[in-house]
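Weekly puzzle thread! Below is a chain. First person to post its structure in token form gets bragging rights.
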Amino acid sequence: MIAVGLMSGTSLDGIDAALVRLRPNGAGYKVDLLNFATFPIPPELLNDLRAALPPNAGTAAGIAALDRRLGDAFARAALAVSGDMPLDFIASHGQTIYHDGDAGYTMQAGDPFVIREKAGCTVCFDFRRADCAAGGQGAPLVPYVDALLFADANEDRVAVNIGGIANLTVVRAGALPQDVVAFDSGPGNMLIDAFVRARTNGEQTFDRGGAFAKAGSVDGPLLQAMLEDPYFALAPPKSTGRERFGAQFLEQHAARLEALSLENGCATLAALTARSLAHAISAASPPGARVFVSGGGVHNAFLMEELARSLPGFTVVSASVHNVHADAKEAVAFAVLGYELLRERPANVPGVTGARGPVVLGSLAPHDLRTLLAKVQAECRT
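Winning reply:
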């Protein structure tokens, strides 16, 4: 099966598009990454999107327009990454507009019918709401795929993704997908990005390579104050997002942050991500596990060094060491979740999300669905 997985995360750093070949292999899949690219969100659309996201209040008309415009942007990304390759399906996570896991509210934008019309294939979408309807938080969903990609019979492993939000999946030796422990640890790159944008008047949007942080030093008292946020002490299942760790979090600590240089602020916020993530890993996983990191945060050298320093006895490496593209992992994961939807196989992990039980995730914008499902059945028989 040839598919494109599409993902745009809370960091708003672009649309990740992964072209993959998926082949059922036992209980899991053999996944070949054929192409990957990150496509920037057009500037005008990005500005309108930021204006509609919490803590701002968007209008119904504005969000409806964003949904259509994002659908067009996602379709362009899918077509660009696939080139002349005929697609069996596209799996699109969309762009989260609002997420409150405790309340079971979640909304992702990126009109799947626009994607279907432009790409001419079935689109799998809306992966989170089925879990919410079953009493879950609707997140995180990638842990199911983490277990398929990282499970090892003899080694305890932790799959970490540092996007706008940081999350982890603990995959003990020999674990099945339903055995994993996973949750959002707190902020990833989101606070650093917002701080850099504010301090450079938008001229720079992130700390490239962690260069600012490496030139600065951590403000210990401010770091401790930020680590006292109640979210870090919550027991899983738990998930979070922009609603908690967006610009309003920086405003809570504005007086202390304003007294810091750009470099010291970046160092302190990167340390917040690393320390909160390290604490979560230490509490949830066996000592000495190998930690595989993916997402944009893997490119922040200061953050990675701080994470390794904060996890004595653990081995911290890029997911690429395991032949999992560190930037593509979440887009690939949603392609796998799309295939699970076509097979009507539950793909949430109730112990992770808090759902009452396993549920099939996602909805379909169908295109020649009979032919597609016949191909699914044929592949699953071989």
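Puzzle host: Confirmed. Bonus trivia for everyone else. The first helix runs from residue 43 to 52.
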